[in-house]
Design a protein that fits this description.
CATH superfamily of the largest domain: Ferritin, core subunit, four-helix bundle
CATH architecture of the largest domain: Up-down Bundle
Order of helices and strands: HHHHHHHHHHHHH
CATH topology of the largest domain: Ferritin
Structural class: mainly alpha
CATH class of the largest domain: Mainly Alpha
Radius of gyration: 20 Å
Strand content: under 5%
């Protein structure tokens, strides 16, 4: 029986919904959540060994225990629904987790790359559970909603712990791979930042067209304008230091943006998935710029510090704007899938 008694200000709910469709979608969200936890476990079981700093290693070990609990909880919720995790999704995600660990090991600044990725991944998990909670509330499933809200709280706490360990990650990276020429390292970090901005531009250009909602489109379009300015500012600073963007890195990141948008457009809950991914991507940028600011400060490059701090303020603002759009993204996704 279709519902028409939904309160207008209930997060994630629409005027007319099909409980059957919502229940099917809720199961899909749970299988996605379980797969994300499987990937997190693959990363967290190795992360303490390559963290490079005791405080980081301790944070990863503590969250490993929490994540094992999250995996059990999502599995239980699926079992309660007569469903089970997706073996294929779990296999792919586990392989992806191991692949990132290998990538991080091969970087000269492993602790820094690990921290930026982990910060982004915690944001991905946090946003995913926020979306799951909203779908569960719309489906009137109190158990799933309460569990998702509790797990989201633990993911938020881990994200904040990691954000507090940026200094430790930078010190560990410099200690394990000392540099005589910090100015050269600043140029390398700026080139990385420029490549990431290229991917962000590619994503944001397409996101506003894919979300099928004027309110969400406005959020993406606003940050697209900011991101283009960020790219220009980073490139200008690179040139000022006698460096140039990496054409190879830029091209690879733009290709990645195309692949991601193709992935999102193939899913019926595109608005929700795009908003979740964009929120995580903002935290990848935040983690990278936080480290760049510290390395530039150590190099005595006050101009780069000023540029980066200005960009960071807008990246944090974009992350907050996306978090403020979770309700709308869930509502639009539900409407699309139940219409």
């Amino acid at each position: 029986m279709a519902r028409s008694d939904v309160k207008a200000n209930d997060p994630g709910e629409t005027d007319v919904q099909s409980p059957t469709d919502l229940e099917v979608q809720l199961t899909k969200y749970l299988t996605d959540a379980h797969s994300i936890e499987v990937q997190a476990l693959a990363q967290l079981r190795v992360a303490p060994d390559i963290a490079g700093a005791d405080v980081l290693a301790a944070a990863f070990r503590e969250h490993l225990s929490e994540t094992e609990g999250h995996e059990r909880e999502t599995r239980r919720l699926l079992d309660d629904r007569g469903a089970s995790p997706s073996s294929l999704k779990d296999l792919v995600m586990a392989a992806g987790g191991k692949g990132f660990v290998l990538f991080a090991r091969l970087q000269p600044d492993t602790p820094g790359k690990l921290l930026a990725h982990a910060l982004s991944y915690e944001a991905l998990e946090l946003a995913s559970y926020e979306m799951l909670a909203r779908v569960a509330k719309a489906a009137r499933n109190d158990d799933v909603a309460a569990t998702a809200t509790r797990i989201a709280g633990e993911e938020r706490a881990m994200r904040d712990r990691l954000a507090g360990h940026v200094d430790a990650a930078v010190e560990a990276a410099l200690r394990e791979h000392p540099r005589d020429d910090l100015a050269k390292l600043v140029r390398s970090y700026l080139a990385d930042a420029h490549a990431i901005e290229q991917q962000a531009i590619g994503l944001l250009e397409r996101a506003s067209k894919l979300v099928e909602d004027a309110e969400l489109s406005a959020v993406f379009e606003h940050h697209l304008a900011e991101t283009k300015r960020h790219s220009e500012a980073v490139e200008e600073r690179l040139h000022g230091l006698g460096g140039d963007p990496s054409s190879l890195k830029d091209a690879a990141m733009r290709l990645g943006a195309l692949n991601w948008t193709a992935f999102f457009s193939a899913h019926p809950d595109t608005p929700g998935k795009l908003t979740v991914f964009a929120y995580a991507f903002e935290h990848l940028e935040i983690g990278g710029y936080e480290q760049l600011a510290r390395v530039a400060a150590k190099a005595g490059d006050d101009e780069t510090v000023a540029v980066v701090e200005s960009i960071l303020a807008e990246e944090r603002g974009a992350a907050e704007a996306l978090a403020g759009s979770f309700d709308r993204a869930a509502e639009v996704s539900i409407r699309i899938q139940t219409s």
